[in-house]
Amino acid sequence: MIARLAIIGVGLIGGSFARALRAAGAVGEVIGCGRSVANLERALDLGVVDRFTTDPAEAVAGADLVFLAVPLGSTRGILEAVRGALDERAIVTDGGSVKGSVVADVRAAFGRMPPNFVPGHPIAGTEHSGVEASFPELYRHRRVILTPLAETDPQALALVQRLWEMCGAEVSLMEVDHHDEILAATSHLPHLLAFGLVDALARMRENDEIFRYAAGGFRDFTRIASSSPVMWRDICLANAPAVGAMLQRFASELNELADTIHDGDGERLWEIFSRAKAARDRFLADGGRD
Ligand SMILES: NC(=O)c1ccc[n+]([C@@H]2O[C@H](COP(=O)([O-])OP(=O)(O)OC[C@H]3O[C@@H](n4cnc5c(N)ncnc54)[C@H](O)[C@@H]3O)[C@@H](O)[C@H]2O)c1
Ligand SMILES: O=C(O)C(=O)C[C@]1(C(=O)O)C=C[C@@H](O)C=C1
């Protein structure tokens, strides 16, 4: 389906995309591009890419499909670097966790929204980074959100959708702003809470003792605080308004909990916890994805 695929950012997301498409027999040659030569050499050893370069323009030359999977803060620079080298018919898509910032970067770099750019976001990942962490099954039974714009060519959209489906994913279409609001709630806020909690505990004087007695609850709640600080810095900055609004909402929920405990209002605590448990049980029963 794709004779030449260029992956810019051969990490967890880019590497897994290449591996999944290879496993599905959907790609011919895969060109990797990144900043870390050690990571790219590892990608070559693992068979994730057939060759690599650190020059984005060289990577996209002659590619039929370009997949951008770099931290969001690097998106605009990459787009500017590849602008003049892209094949006229090449389809470009991405896996960035925030869509408004990517769309703004594309408009700024190209002076318009090219019809062959399809913004996307796989709702799948782990707390690990780099090509070593990538695996072909990452997207199987996971959702991928595509956020096409009025300018998007339906054929480009259909191809990108088909490729994700070949990776085993279920594709949904969504408006850019709606995507960013939803993900602020279900992904960005939980990461902020995990990072914030671990940082607060780590800065407490007794932290050695605290971590010694932490067990499953702490481990489950904080797994995602092992995620890439660069990636999460960029996500928070790229989605600042929606993340800020969610944080404020959550802060008032926390204040309400604190007041309820202070008032010794057990009935109210039970109500809040029961409502939360029922919502999470429903999420799991509906196939809640890990
Ligand atoms: N990790 C997740 O769970 C997850 C899930 C969905 C989407 N995403 C998004 O996917 C993108 C990639 O995340 P990841 O988890 O694969 O990160 P990663 O750190 O595993 O991989 C990113 C790769 O990009 C390379 N890179 C960084 N800056 C670059 C630049 N300027 N030019 C070329 N290469 C550069 C790095 O060397 C690295 O190999 C991010 O935009 C992230 O928001 C991540
Ligand atoms: O499972 C994880 O480790 C993840 O963080 C994956 C996760 C998330 O669910 O929040 C992280 C960022 C994304 O953009 C999409 C998925």
TrEMBL record:
InterPro entries: 6-PGluconate_DH-like_C_sf, NAD(P)-bd_dom_sf, PDH_C, PDH_N, Preph/Arog_dehydrog, Prephen_DH. Pathway: Amino-acid biosynthesis; L-tyrosine biosynthesis; (4-hydroxyphenyl)pyruvate from prephenate (NAD(+) route): step 1/1. Keywords: Amino-acid biosynthesis, Aromatic amino acid biosynthesis, NAD, Oxidoreductase, Tyrosine biosynthesis. Pfam families: PDH_C, PDH_N. GO terms for biological process: tyrosine biosynthetic process. It comes from the Bacteria. Coiled coil: none annotated. It is an enzyme of class 1 (oxidoreductase). PROSITE patterns: PDH_ADH. Residues 3-290 form the Prephenate/arogenate dehydrogenase domain. GO terms for molecular function: NAD+ binding; prephenate dehydrogenase (NAD+) activity; prephenate dehydrogenase (NADP+) activity. Its EC number is 1.3.1.12. PANTHER family: PREPHENATE DEHYDROGENASE (PTHR21363), PREPHENATE DEHYDROGENASE [NADP(+)] (PTHR21363:SF0). This is prephenate dehydrogenase.
